[in-house]
Amino acid sequence: MKVAVTGASGFIGRHVLHALAQAKDVEVIAATRRPARDGLSEGIRHVVLDLTAPSSDDFLKLGEPDVVIHLAWHGLPNYLARHHFESELGVQYRFLRGLVDAGLSSLLCTGTCFEYGMQSGELHESLPTNPSNPYGFAKDALRRELEFLRDGNRFQLTWARLFYMHGEGQAPSSLYSQFVAAGSRGDKVFKMSGGEQLRDYLHVSQVAQALVALACKQVDTGIVNVCAGHPTSVRALVEGWLATHPWPMTLALGHYPYPTYEPMAFWGSNARLTQLLR
């Protein structure tokens, strides 16, 4: 099987490449916007693709893969920027439609839990979407566009709706990266929110393994939550990190306000994911 990964040098992409390297009988093509700064694992072919300038031979450049794991998305982690729907949405659709028109038969595309909007509690794939920030809106719109495209073309679509992640290589502004940076500097206090928010967290390596397993099935899965399936408070998450590191930091709870673009308590149902990966 030949698998191409867009956004391969990003936070999730690097972990997806590692997971693919463990798979049997898989040829991997890593696509990035710029030449890769870090060496790729042996046996992985690298290509440079600029989604903002799609070409009719992009599918050929990718080696005519059996499946594409599409992770690329510009402008993160600023979820509130209008860029996501004013320009990125069109860029994404034109690129993916070009691949489908050229013969792509199976596509896994990553979505976001922000598609659910301000809904609280356990979130199931069957719930209607109601995004409340530009990033969630753009992702939800892209999913709908791809579903219309699929109705007139024979390709398999998996929409992997991601929840919260943490791990090596995450954006410097993320909670995990800020925590590691504070500990590495020798800070005695880690400033954070009150930490009572309930979220759904997975380590990025678990997310990558799930994405690879779903992609390699090459079936028309539709929407599937990629999540732990249970709530964890932000405070408990950070306290867990603190317990596994030797840094003598205390938590300054309540230093930052709670974000207004997400509900206080929500997590995903992973029943469908568990069933698909059996």
Task: Write a structural description.
With 278 residues, this protein is α/β, with parallel strands linked by helices. The protein has two domains: 2-165 and 200-229 and 268-276, NAD(P)-binding Rossmann-like Domain (Rossmann fold, 3-Layer(aba) Sandwich), CATH 3.40.50; 170-198 and 231-267, no CATH class. The chain has eight helices and 15 strands. The protein has helices at residues 11-21, 58-61, 83-102, 134-152, 175-185, 204-217, 234-243, 271-276; strands at 2-6, 27-32, 44-48, 67-70, 106-112, 121-123, 156-162, 164-166, 189-191, 198-199, 201-203, 222-226, 232-233, 250-252, 266-268. A seven-stranded parallel β-sheet has the order 3-2-1-4-5-7-12, with helices on both faces. The chain has a two-stranded parallel ribbon with strand order 6-15. Strand 4, helix 3 (83-102) and strand 5 (106-112) form a beta-alpha-beta unit. The protein starts with a strand and ends with a helix. The model has no long low-confidence stretch (mean pLDDT 95).
